[in-house]
Design goal:
It holds the Pfam family FLYWCH. This protein has 3 helices and 8 strands, in the order ββββββαααββ. It is an alpha+beta fold.
Length: about 210
């Protein structure tokens, strides 16, 4: 039987076309947008002392209250009002003109929601108590709470009887001192209209007659 060795080479030629090869579409780059938290901005509000003996306080938007620690020609230093014995909060705020800057120490306690509103209510109660010496403190407290407290809860707001007690204390601080002898001046602004009927001095004695027309 005859055998044959057949060798054949087959070359497959690539067909050449006049059309350009389609360029691959580049994949879009995916950027990692890492959103950083915006700096925490704190705003401040001066709560002016609206009575003769009341002192101005400073409130911030976080719910902290400060009073004056030190006044200098170039700056005012405010200290946190939370100062229990043995564990004073050392947070301060430095005021230069209308600019406020937080100190290096952080608060060692959480803020109190509604602290600024509560301080404003207290200032209004004291102001009204001085303006209207003869109106019951409880009535003043009720009017201020009705006008300024609003409908939202305020955890920092003192109880009504504490507000009334503060009103009576501020009144007491503005009243004349008790006389030491009979030779004293009557403060007419401390006596209701028409209540003083007579002030009689005779034979070393003094008789002050008070009464109403009813």
């Amino acid at each position: 039987m005859d055998t044959f060795d057949i060798q054949a080479s087959f070359e497959l030629e690539n067909e050449q076309t006049d059309e350009p090869m389609e360029e691959s579409i580049p994949q879009p780059r995916i950027h990692d947008h890492t959103t950083e938290d915006a700096p925490h901005e704190v705003t401040y509000q001066l709560l002016e002392g609206r009575t003769k003996r009341a002192k101005t306080k400073l409130a911030d938007s976080d719910g902290y209250i400060y009073n004056v620690q030190l006044r200098r020609a170039s700056a005012t230093y405010w200290q946190c009002t939370v100062r229990p014995k043995g564990n004073h909060c050392r947070a301060i705020v430095i005021q230069r003109g209308n600019e406020f800057q937080q100190g290096k120490q952080n608060h060692n306690h959480p803020p109190t929601a509604g602290a600024a509103k509560a301080a404003g209510v207290m200032a209004s109660v004291k102001e009204r108590a001085v303006e209207d010496q003869f109106k019951p403190a409880s009535a003043i407290v009720n009017e201020v709470l009705l006008n300024e407290s609003g409908n939202e809860p305020c955890p920092a707001l003192p109880k009504p009887h504490h507000l009334a007690r503060a009103a009576n204390r501020i009144r007491q601080s503005t009243r004349p001192k008790d006389p030491l002898d009979l030779d004293f001046d009557l403060h007419q602004d401390q006596i209701p209209d028409g209540f003083l009927k007579a002030d009689i001095k005779k034979h070393g004695n003094r008789h002050i007659i008070l009464g109403t027309d009813q």
